[in-house]
Amino acid sequence: MATLPRIHPVILAGGSGVRLWPLSRPWHPKPFVRLAGDHTLLQATAARLSAAQRFAPPLVICNRTHRFLVGEQLHQIGIEPQAIVLEPEARNTAPAACIAALLLAERQPDALLMLAPSDHFIRDEPALLAAIDSAAKAAAAGWIVTFGARAERPETGYGYIRRGEGLADYDGCFRIARFVEKPDLTTAQDYVESGQYAWNSGMFLLSAARLVEEMERYEPAILQACRGALQQATKDEDFLRLEPASFAEQPNLAFDRAVMERTQHAAVVPIDIGWSDVGSWDALHQVSRKDENGNVLSGAVISVDSRNSYLHSEALPIAALGLDGITVVSTADALLVCPRSRSQDLTLMVDRLAGDPRYASLVRRDTGEEDS
């Protein structure tokens, strides 16, 4: 790694995480919540990408209403970001990646950037760092490297990557043969049994120059809009505010769709690091420490003859008797009860609440509003 430039972590903190309602809300979403450990998911992400010999200070891209959450949570763990970029509205990960590449390329065209979602869980962080070391050489040579997490079980909530032939000059790196969107259960089972597919982790390592080049080729409208938003951006204390009108003139598009599934330079490094996007209560149950009955108990909880359940209280005590595979989450203003097997369907309930005037305030708030 001594011959390579330090990697610039680009932490993407714009998600809402509605599948973890009621703990995750639009004004305080999943990245800023302590779910699996002493740190929030944002803090854990920044900390694992902070070793000075490998990484430059992070660049964080977030919604403008979350700017103080980002600043305060990074300050709590002693990390000073190189910039906190404020999106005027959500436009997915392709524009965020483009903004980061343009910012870095101004100072260092060959800069390597690591796109990292702010709300994922990783158990084996040393193994991730080893994988980043393997990927960095390929990224410096122009490859766009993603990280394919070992498919531990048939999972219908994740995208999949099929590994192709190895890259001759880069140990541990492979061409990507195929991207697959979220499959049905039978197909996911086939993928797991084949051993040829990995989960798409949503992490990418590439050079700023390559990213700009591929945006020019495949999504010039995004590149133009991002350049305009940066040219008219304003500094506000520690924050860089993107210009709203220019930023809005682009599609809402994920980086996978915009570039990764179309480029001729796509590569994958397989990882076995205990990765999860903790995108549902069931996923959180899987990565959390459990008692002898398979329960995850947090807060004021009394459990009798209950199994394989996730029970979390931030308000009134939970008294659980004879539950099996149930999620119960209690906050000061809401109570969720659902089977763990229905975790991926929680958006149905959130949509119902948002459409009911009696309960809309529990799930809705215009994240474009300015904070006082």
Question: How does this model look, in words?
Answer:
By secondary structure, this protein is α/β, with parallel strands linked by helices. The protein has 2 domains: 270 residues, Spore Coat Polysaccharide Biosynthesis Protein SpsA, Chain A (Alpha-Beta Complex), CATH 3.90.550.10; 82 residues, no CATH class. It is built from 11 helices and 19 strands. It has a 5-stranded mixed barrel with strand order 6-9-7-8-12. The protein has a 4-stranded mixed beta sheet with strand order 14-16-18-19, covered by helices on one side. It has a two-stranded antiparallel sheet with strand order 5-13. A hairpin with a 4-residue loop joins β18 and β19. The longest helix has 16 residues. The C terminus is likely disordered.
How is this fold's topology laid out?
Layout: E1 7-13, H1 41-48, E2 59-63, H2 67-76, E3 83-87, H3 93-107, E4 112-117, E5 121-122, H4 125-140, E6 144-150, E7 160-166, E8 174-180, H5 185-194, E9 197-207, H6 208-218, H7 220-231, E10 234-236, E11 239-241, H8 244-248, H9 255-260, E12 266-271, E13 275-276, H10 281-287, E14 296-298, E15 301-304, E16 310-313, E17 318-321, E18 326-330, E19 335-339, H11 346-354
Parallel strand pairs: 1-2, 1-4, 2-3, 3-11, 6-12, 14-16, 15-17, 16-18
Antiparallel strand pairs: 4-9, 5-13, 6-9, 7-8, 7-9, 8-12, 10-11, 18-19
- Shape descriptor: globular
CATH superfamily of the largest domain: Spore Coat Polysaccharide Biosynthesis Protein SpsA, Chain A
| Fraction in helix | 25-40%
CATH class of the largest domain: Alpha Beta
Structural class: alpha/beta
Computed Rg: 21 Å
Distance between the termini: 45 Å
Instruction: Report the sheet with the most strands, covering strand number, pairing sense and barrel closure.
Output: 5 strands, mixed, barrel
Average pLDDT rating:
92
Total domains: 2
Low-confidence stretches: 366-372
Instruction: Give a count of the beta strands, DSSP E runs of length 2 or more.
Output: 19
**What is the correct CATH architecture of the largest domain?**
Alpha-Beta Complex
Strand/helix succession: EHEHEHEEHEEEHEHHEEHHEEHEEEEEEH
**Helix count, per DSSP?**
11
What is the oligomeric state here?
single chain
Q: What strand order characterises the main sheet?
A: 6-9-7-8-12
Strand content: 25-35%
Q: Could you name the CATH topology of the largest domain? A: Spore Coat Polysaccharide Biosynthesis Protein SpsA, Chain A
